[in-house]
Design goal:
By secondary structure, this protein is mainly α. Helix content is 66%, strand content 3%. The protein is built from 34 helices and 3 strands. Strand 1 and strand 2 form a beta hairpin. Helix 12 packs antiparallel against helix 13. The radius of gyration is 38 Å and the shape is elongated. It starts with 8 loop residues before the first helix and ends with a strand.
């Protein structure tokens, strides 16, 4: 007897419903391809074949969306209308909605959520979201969106997609991700697109793969000016100036960027002769051309040529002035730096880099008045926002001018501090004998999580040396190696020798120098010799002086210190021997000078071959003169610099 399965009515009903849904979905997905014209023009189209109405920008909802003021309440109302009307799935409407959301940084994630609900998003929507992440300085999220959403939903890219992704790879410096994107460029057939090629050349150049950049350049002979410039700039940035010059000579046409790239390459190599030759051949120049040449001469410290070009410039911008200011700071001509700044104020508004150079000059000259003026300018300008570098330069100026209260005020108001900021405060307190505050500053630095460097410990050890804190000095000398794994350098040993020498522990100082793992050099032996003079230890002084003379026979310091030690003990015959030794070797003491700025005028004193008593007397006279000058010139409008020469 045969058995036959008889489905129930409900099962038949479910099966028919499932089959109907399946056939309907197949008709939607795999429908007939659209026809450009109908074979039966007079026959009315079937209901299923009727196309959806074409959405235009003139649609009332889209026009309302374009005029949306930006409030989320108004946007949500428009969004709701698009959902109810079914228009949100239209690419044009979805693209406009995403574009509106991406116009505000706070609603970008809202745009991503909306994208996830779209059935058929297009490349425009994806590009809009990724470009917004790039503009928000979040390139990694843009790249993640591409892999997790665009690739996952199989959205076909267009010729705007890959240049954007390649730019992301350039910004994050990921050659691996860049090569992945390049592979997808080849897969989708965009390798000959000029915009894509230019982006790839730039990306490979930035990542140091100049050979791959050249391979992309050689893919097609159809290149525009951007392609040539990108390749030349890539060669220059990677140090291949010869290859850049060869390509430069082959260019069918050149623009300012082409010339400036080559000049920058030769300037970077220090080949100013070739750079000048190209500069003179340029059919026309811009401000970048002039600044590149001036910067090149500034880098090799050729002040004469830099000044000549600077004075020949048809017009100058803030970069031109900053190059000259930085040059004079580099060659330590701080007076000229301030004079250039006075000229600049009448022509150009300074920026942060300008004021860093000016404050550096003020710090070395002790120009507290000028430094205060710069500080006031920063407060009242309203445009300059002090960053870490500028704030550190400001507090360093106050430290070097002895205004520790003002320096501390600047330091406390800094939202972010660098290790240089901490070091400046520590050494400032230490130089003024306030070692307790210096060490408190170091402890505060540790509590706030800032990592000390070798310069920090030089500042700490120097503070201990100025205050005679021998025990604390030994502690921090061991701490740097034990906790922070910083091996002591010559400067650290120099601070310890100075600390022990000031405390009269001369034998310990000598032993420390001899046990150093590296050559001590003249600075350490000189510090020990100075300590010998302070504590009148002529026996050790002779040994140390001989060692110093062996290390540097042309350094007059050792001879003078030894002569002074002999003179203090009345050993005039030995003094004469040292003098004759100096004379026989042609060593003469250079004229020393000190400069003190008092408000709007300064005094500069020269001292040459003066005894200790004569120096003390002269300093006393200068102090009295400064006080009288300050009183008598209080009502004067301008006081010239006073120079006092003492032979």
């Amino acid at each position: 007897m045969g058995v036959r399965f008889r489905p129930s009515n409900s099962a038949v009903r479910l099966s028919s419903l499932s089959l109907e849904k399946f056939l309907k979905s197949r008709r939607n997905v795999a429908g007939a391809p659209p026809k450009l014209w109908s074979d039966h023009a007079h026959e009315p189209p079937e209901e299923e074949d009727r196309p959806l109405p074409v959405l235009k920008l003139s649609h009332p909802i889209l026009r309302t969306l374009e005029s949306c003021s930006g409030s989320m309440k108004e946007f949500n109302q428009i969004h709701t209308q698009l959902l109810v009307s079914g228009l949100l799935q239209q690419p044009l409407a979805a693209g406009r909605v995403v574009k509106t959301l991406c116009s505000s940084p706070d609603s970008v994630q809202h745009a991503v959520l909306l994208f996830e609900g779209l059935e058929e998003p297009d490349a425009f929507i994806c590009n809009t979201i990724m470009r917004n992440f790039v503009n928000l300085n979040d390139p990694c999220t843009a790249l993640g969106f591409y892999h997790q959403h665009m690739v996952h939903k199989c959205v076909s890219p267009n010729h705007y997609t890959f240049p954007l992704l390649v730019k992301v790879c350039s910004e994050i410096g990921s050659i691996r991700e860049g090569e992945k994107i390049h592979a997808r460029v080849l897969k989708f057939g965009f390798e000959l697109d000029l915009f894509v090629r230019n982006s790839l050349i730039h990306m490979y150049s930035v990542c140091g793969k100049i050979g791959d950049a050249r391979a992309v350049f050689d893919v097609c002979s159809m290149s525009d000016l951007v392609t040539w410039n990108s390749m030349i700039d890539g060669y220059v940035k990677n140090g291949e100036i010869s290859a850049a010059r060869e390509l430069f000579e082959e260019m069918p046409e050149r623009d300012l960027f082409s010339w400036n790239s080559m000049i920058a390459g030769y300037v970077g190599n220090g080949d100013m002769q070739t750079a000048e030759a190209l500069f003179n051949k340029m059919p026309f120049r811009d401000i970048v051309s002039w600044n590149s040449m001036i910067d090149g001469y500034a880098q090799i410290r050729n002040v004469k040529f830099a000044c000549e070009l600077f004075n020949l410039m048809p017009y100058r911008n803030v970069v031109s002035w900053n190059i000259m200011l930085a040059l004079y700071v580099r060659i330590k001509d701080y007076d000229e730096c301030l004079r250039i700044f006075d000229r600049m104020i009448g022509e150009t508004m300074p920026n942060e880099a300008t004021l860093v150079s000016v404050l550096t000059a003020c710090a070395h000259l002790g120009r507290l008045d000028m430094g205060k003026w710069v500080h006031s300018y920063i407060k009242n300008n309203g445009v300059i926002e002090p960053d870490v570098l500028l704030s550190t330069a400001l507090l360093t100026m106050y430290v070097k001018c002895g205004a520790m209260d003002l320096a501390r005020d600047v330091f406390d108001k800094m939202p972010n501090r660098s290790v240089v900021s901490w070091n400046s405060m520590i050494i400032g307190y230490g130089m003024r004998g306030q070692a307790d505050k210096a060490l408190e500053m170091f402890l505060d630095m540790e509590k706030r999580g800032a990592m000390p460097n070798d310069a920090t410990f030089v500042s700490v050890l120097s503070a201990c040396a100025h205050s005679g804190m021998v025990l604390e000095g030994w502690w921090y000398f061991g701490l740097m190696r034990r906790v922070y794994k910083i091996e002591p350098k010559v400067k650290h040993y120099g601070c310890m020798v100075d600390l022990l020498g000031r405390a009269g522990l001369l034998k310990d100082s000598e032993e420390l120098i001899r046990k150093m793992p590296m050559e001590g050099g003249t600075a350490l032996w000189g510090a020990l010799l100075s300590a010998c003079r302070t504590h009148s230890n002529s026996e050790l002084a002779e040994i140390v002086a001989k060692r110093l003379i062996e290390l540097d026979p042309k350094d007059i310091g050792a001879y003078l210190l030894l002569s002074n030690i002999y003179a203090a003990e009345g050993k005039w015959d030995d003094v004469e021997i040292v003098r004759q030794m100096m004379k026989g070797r042609g060593l003469t003491k250079k004229t020393g000078f000190s400069q003190v700025h008092i408000e709007e005028f300064g005094t500069r004193s020269f001292v040459e071959n003066a005894s200790i008593h004569r120096k003390s007397m002269m300093y006393s006279i200068l102090s009295d003169m400064a006080a009288h000058i300050k009183l008598s010139c209080r009502d004067c409008e301008e006081v010239e610099n006073l120079t006092i020469s003492c032979l």
